[in-house]
Amino acid sequence: MGTSTRIIGIGLLVVGALLPFGLRFVQEAPLLLYLLPAALLVIGGFTFYRGRQLSARRAAPADLTTAGPGVLYLRAFASDPSTVKQSLYPLLTVALLSGLTSDEEQLVDVLRPFGRMVAIGQPGEWLPDPGAARVYRDDNAWQATVDEQMRLARLVIIRIGSGEGLQWELRHARAVVDPSRLLLFCARLGRSKIQRAIAGAEDALDLQLPRPHGAGFYRFSAAWQAQFLRIRAPLLRRSSYKPLRSGSMYALRPVFDQFGIAWTKPRMSKLMVFAAVVAALFLLLFGLFFAAAVISSL
């Protein structure tokens, strides 16, 4: 069900993106026809997101009491992408497919060699957000679950933000997690939001964090000295569909080495290579025309 729904969503996105080019050849088309591409993009974004949710529901673990996750991913529920935002992404971004895959889904891809990634699900949600497998606990049991999984997980990642629950998780991680197993994920946020998030993390962990330069991860030494690992990748290895994935792979290479896990260089992006070739040809042609103009003026 999830796969077929995603395919339908992709089809709607492609039609919505290409339809404006076809409308250029239609004379005196009704106004509603010009609104159709935007409607198809929104419906396609919603359908694609719903398909990912349906697939995520099948992947949710029923019980985590006997085995811990490879990666425990903790975050404030407010950082989860909303259905409305996911549906509108194709209209809000220049790159049509950029943003259709969430930060969490891309982190799951990057950290797959560490084992399955597990997160605490929002109580009462009908479908889980795509990404880490969700485990659900009521308000009286979630802290005990987090404590148990923090102790068992190979790697604990906390996305810094705001919220009392997140502050408790940060304080508890300082108490029970070895610093070599803890990463703080610093997503790209506005200046004021990131300052508040870092201040809250510093207060909860009782330490100083270097100021970030863009999105990245904080890792810690045995003495809780923080190091910022910036998310960035070489130009030709960046992806417009999964913009976080390649940069995270490069940022987290020291963590792979620390755990003795083989690190694989991200593949070159065919789209970026094509864009680079087109840009090079354009510059070459511009240079030839300019040189010809100079010569003819002599």
Q: What does this 3D model show about the protein?
A:
The model is unreliable at 62-66 (pLDDT under 50). This protein has 298 residues and is of the alpha/beta class. Helix 6 links the parallel strand 4 (155-159) and strand 5 (182-186). The chain has three domains: 1-59; 60-263; 268-298. The chain has ten helices and seven strands. Strands 3-2-1-4-5-6-7 form a seven-stranded mixed β-sheet. The chain has helices at residues 2-23, 31-59, 83-92, 103-110, 142-152, 164-176, 191-205, 245-251, 253-259, 270-297, and strands at residues 71-74, 117-120, 133-135, 155-159, 182-186, 216-220, 226-230. Helices cover 50% and strands 10% of the residues.
Write a brief caption for the model.
It contains 10 helices and 7 strands. The protein has helices at residues 2-23, 31-59, 83-92, 103-110, 142-152, 164-176, 191-205, 245-251, 253-259, 270-297; strands spanning 71-74, 117-120, 133-135, 155-159, 182-186, 216-220, 226-230.
List the helices and strands and how they pair.
Elements lengths: L1 H22 L7 H29 L11 E4 L8 H10 L10 H8 L6 E4 L12 E3 L6 H11 L2 E5 L4 H13 L5 E5 L4 H15 L10 E5 L5 E5 L14 H7 L1 H7 L10 H28 L1
Parallel strand pairs: 1-2, 1-4, 2-3, 4-5
Antiparallel strand pairs: 5-6, 6-7
Characteristic terms for this protein:
single chain; 298 residues; alpha/beta; 7-stranded mixed beta sheet; 10 helices; 50% helix
